[in-house]
Amino acid sequence: MHKICIIGLGLLGGSIGKECLEKKLSKKVIGFGRNHDSLKKALQLQLVHEISDDFNNIHDADLVIIATPVKQIELVLKQIKPFLSKSTLITDVGSTKTNIINSVKNILGAESKNFIGSHPIAGSEKNGPEAAQNNLFNKKNIIITPHKLNTESSIKKIEDFWKQLNGNTIIMSPENHDEIFSTVSHLPHALAISFMSMINKKENREELLNFAASGFRDFTRIAASSPEMWRDIFIDNKEACLKDLKSYIEQLKEFENALEDETTLFDFIHNGSDLRKNWDE
Q: On the chain, which terminus has fewer CB atoms closer than 10 Å, C or N?
């Protein structure tokens, strides 16, 4: 490609830029963002060839990648719309998809055919340009969520891009994506955050944390993720999250009842343990 533009140079955007440079996927990789200090840091870390605060620089881009928190994507689309060429493909890395696609259609109209949603399953609790790393997408699932206006050739180009980063591409609808990731990603984050919030309200929280071991660290690690990013994800995927939360509350009630009977409690634990072991195998 001649030019790739990345808007947002945190963990995902920065890692994409880093690999694009190292694999020489484009003659020019330009980074954009809200924070000029972060942009300068990204340039120092060689995550991009150039940085810019002028969206006019995307007018001849082959690919624009929006790597901002999901609630900022709508604003970014409005800002870049006047500068997009009819041949520029656009993708994102957001953890929700249905609302994003709806925003794309409302803002870009007929040109929304050039937007193909992506979600690399390669995050961590770290953020900022310093979090960018090599091989972040290697053998990781990359969910691609096309809509009816996309052409097969455009979808293939986005697939090929992620494959060049050694990702495993999977196609699914935006709606199916949001239901799946509410259960396996969004709700677990909510649980980790809620548990740390509970600890924080206890008078002996420092004592509790001093005795916490590796299991506690593993379970709560994701609670350290970006508050802005996760606020936006929960709001954007609210309906699916509320549905899963209701199911989980029912599970907690089952566990509460199981504490009254040893056999029921054993079966409850055994069912969860078996599924986890079989998944690893």
A: C
**Per-residue pLDDT tens for 24-57?**
999 999 999 988 899 999 999 999 999 999 999 9
What is the pTM (predicted TM-score) of this model? 0.88
The answer to whether residues 100 and 126 touch, using CB atoms and an 8 Å cutoff, is no
Q: What are phi and psi of 280, to 5 degrees?
A: -60, -40
Note the maximum CA span of the chain.
67
Chain segment 48-104, per-residue pLDDT in tens: 999 999 999 999 999 999 999 999 999 999 999 999 999 999 999 999 999 999 999
For residue 10, give the DSSP letter: S
Task: Give the integer Cα–Cα distance in Å for 20 and 12.
Answer: 12
CATH number for the 3-173 domain, one of 3.40.50.720, 3.40.30.10, 3.90.550.10, 3.10.350.10? 3.40.50.720
Taking the mean position of all CA atoms in its chain, how far away is CA 21?
22
